[in-house]
Backbone:
């Protein structure tokens, strides 16, 4: 009888203890291994010993599946020795040893060996679990060109006339090229097996395997090495995993194969939806085992969202009907903490690799510039009005405006920039705004909004007018509204376009003044760029001198400024902001992490918190983008839970009405935008209850 204390939610175990929470298997992950054992040609006894050794290592590392190379129990390069009965019987003996060793292992093992069925010989993959052979898959396509002569020894899967076989004393074993293996207790964990050349053909069998429901595609390969071939393998596997929205596990024969005419590099790799997750060292002189934590939720979400996948399922219904599903139950390790070993970027919108980051920054600016240029051309407008605060968002928007003017071959003086100090504007940000406008070369203006704000507060009979230090939301929004009101009237007067500066992070958290406030503009150039990415864009502009050389110092001064709306007067000196944005809505680096995995993949809050903990709990681990050591933060699980709760409430409960009517803006990254005309469409009056309830399953601390 099932333990009543364990319940399932959307296929994911609802965590009851912190130990369960810190176990990747409870968050839609599965750990897999790919092995390249040291082998000898035509020596199954030696080969099975190295294979079993790697099996045990895989279990020690808490993997649930391990894949070995093509014909790995005999060696691939045996050639006509495959017609020797001694070798064939020895291969079956080796398989029996695998069965015996696997009896007490919670591990699915996929090994390659020759299997004789009736009078035909097949190049096969045997799938083993707990001492049982749960299926045998013969190779579909046999190469018979250049250095390959497999048709000399083997028959292709299509000629098999049996759907089940007897092997190692076990009868009724499913046999065929169209077998889908699925875990009954974790349906997302389903896999399909193909062998080497099957991937090289125009329509690999794994295409139909994925459409039939396999999230993991396994390839036992031999694949000798020639110059540049490893790059071609990468291309094939990356594209197949991306096209099939699947994980692809690949392992090739190692250096123990025969070198009579060929050489071997033992190349193994694991891809997930086009992304390389793990790769072996090539040319290993000895056994090798690599691991990957695969995100089954991600693959399921991608298939659900990309509805052309389901259209393909419909189109290939006849092929899919030919598949047989092989069910099995698997014991996942659920009694210990198993953190995700996979490296997730702390800044999912910002590549850690410096070269890739530079490429992305350049492309983002080109995308934004192209969007603004098109809008100005279409509206037949040659001037831009923009408010400059001395903060991050308006700085980046001004940079884009300058580039757009350069493309249009218009003078930057036609950017009408206004800095509008209010009751809480610090001398520091005001000075930065003035210098920035100067180095950009725009038409700089300064308008003190305090008199007009005082008039509005007087009309409201607000306590502030009577000398009381009441700094409520009305006091704040009067200033935000006056700034926007001025910008729109300036635009009317000068026949210009108001360029919005607000970013994706602020839209997600509802951190903007609705309507006549920073919420509205004629064109919102930053609306699909999160705060963390804007920081890196500005840093890239400074470091690569995209503007003049004098701009670098002011750009770094802006980057080093405390993020604040500066709407409430400080209690100390004029350079100290009374409002610290991140103290109210949370660290942007965490909230952008939450935003990405909420909108891009629709993950449960528990899973987002688990990923955040794996990425952020130790600042000494993993790669950092260009951030100085003193600004490299780490967070406890309690802090992650607190700020995730803030995010969930603001994102799902109180902010959608603002996003339902936002200005036009170009989409920049695959992380998406929150435009109701594009990536995200949601009701403005929905509840956050289910997300908040899920957050309760996150522990407050590690016990």
Residues:
């Amino acid at each position: 009888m099932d333990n009543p204390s364990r319940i399932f939610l959307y296929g994911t175990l609802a965590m009851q203890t912190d130990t369960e929470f810190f176990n990747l298997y409870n968050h839609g992950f599965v750990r897999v291994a790919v092995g390249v054992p040291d082998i000898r040609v035509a020596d199954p006894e030696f080969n099975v010993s190295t294979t079993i050794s790697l099996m045990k290592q895989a279990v020690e590392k808490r993997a649930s599946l391990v894949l070995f190379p093509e014909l790995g129990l005999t060696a691939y390069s045996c050639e006509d020795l495959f017609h020797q009965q001694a070798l064939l019987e020895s291969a079956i003996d080796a398989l029996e040893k695998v069965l015996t060793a696997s009896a007490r292992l919670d591990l699915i093992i996929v090994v390659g060996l020759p299997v004789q069925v009736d009078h035909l010989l097949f190049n096969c993959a045997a799938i083993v679990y707990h001492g049982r052979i749960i299926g045998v898959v013969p190779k579909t396509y046999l190469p018979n060109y250049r250095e390959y002569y497999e048709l000399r020894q083997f028959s292709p899967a299509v000629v098999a006339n049996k759907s089940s076989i007897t092997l190692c004393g076990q009868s009724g074993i499913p046999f065929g090229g169209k077998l889908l293996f699925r875990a009954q207790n974790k349906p997302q964990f389903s896999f399909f097996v193909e062998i080497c050349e099957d991937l090289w053909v125009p329509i690999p069998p794994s295409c139909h395997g994925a459409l039939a429901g396999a999230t993991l595609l396994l390839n036992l390969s031999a694949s000798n090495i020639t110059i540049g071939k490893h790059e071609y393998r990468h291309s094939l596997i990356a594209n197949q995993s991306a096209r099939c929205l699947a994980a692809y596990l690949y392992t090739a024969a190692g250096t123990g194969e025969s070198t009579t005419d060929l050489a071997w590099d033992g190349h193994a790799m694991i891809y997930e939806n086009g992304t390389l997750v793990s790769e072996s060292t090539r040319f290993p002189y000895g056994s090798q085992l690599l691991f990957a934590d695969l995100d089954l939720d991600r693959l399921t979400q991608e298939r659900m969202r990309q509805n052309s996948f389901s259209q393909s399922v419909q189109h290939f219904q006849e092929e899919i009907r030919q598949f047989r599903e092989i069910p099995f139950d698997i014991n996942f390790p659920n009694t210990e903490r198993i953190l995700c070993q996979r490296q997730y970027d702390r800044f999912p919108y910002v590549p850690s690799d410096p070269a890739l980051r530079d490429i992305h920054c350049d492309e983002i600016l080109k995308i934004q510039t192209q969007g603004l240029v098109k809008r100005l051309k279409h509206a037949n407008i040659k001037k831009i009005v923009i408010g400059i605060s001395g903060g991050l968002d308006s700085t980046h928007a001004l940079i884009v405006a300058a580039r757009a003017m350069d493309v249009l071959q218009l003078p930057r003086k036609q950017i009408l920039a206004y800095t509008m100090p209010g009751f809480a504007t610090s001398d520091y940000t005001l000075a930065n705004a003035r210098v920035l406008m100067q180095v950009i070369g725009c038409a700089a203006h300064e308008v003190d909004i305090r008199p007009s704000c005082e008039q509005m507060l007087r009309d409201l009979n607000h306590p502030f007018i009577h000398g009381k230090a009441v700094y409520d939301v009305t006091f704040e929004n009067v200033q935000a509204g006056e700034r926007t009101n001025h910008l729109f009237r300036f635009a009317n007067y000068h026949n210009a376009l108001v360029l919005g500066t607000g970013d994706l992070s602020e839209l997600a958290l509802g951190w903007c003044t609705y309507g006549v406030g920073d919420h509205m503009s004629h064109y919102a150039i930053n609306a699909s760029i999160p705060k963390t990415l804007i920081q890196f864009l500005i840093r890239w502009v400074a470091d690569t001198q995209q503007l003049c050389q004098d701009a670098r110092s002011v750009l770094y001064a802006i980057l080093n400024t405390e993020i604040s709306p500066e709407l409430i007067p400080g209690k100390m000196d004029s350079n100290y902001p009374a409002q610290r944005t991140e103290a109210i809505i949370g660290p942007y680096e965490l909230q952008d992490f939450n935003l990405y995995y909420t909108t891009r993949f629709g993950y449960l809050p528990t899973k987002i918190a688990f990923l955040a903990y794996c990425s952020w709990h130790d600042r000494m681990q993993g790669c950092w983008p260009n951030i100085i050591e003193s600004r490299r933060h780490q967070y406890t699980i309690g802090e992650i839970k607190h700020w995730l709760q803030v995010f969930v409430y603001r994102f799902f409960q109180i902010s959608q009405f603002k996003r339902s009517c936002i200005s036009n803006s170009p989409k920049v990254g695959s992380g998406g935008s929150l435009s109701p005309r594009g990536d995200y469409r949601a009701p403005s009056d929905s509840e956050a209850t289910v997300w908040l309830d899920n957050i309760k399953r996150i522990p407050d601390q590690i016990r």
Notes: The radius of gyration is 30 Å. Residues 1-13 have pLDDT under 50 and may be disordered. Residues 279 and 313 are 31 Å apart (CA to CA). The longest strand covers residues 108-117.
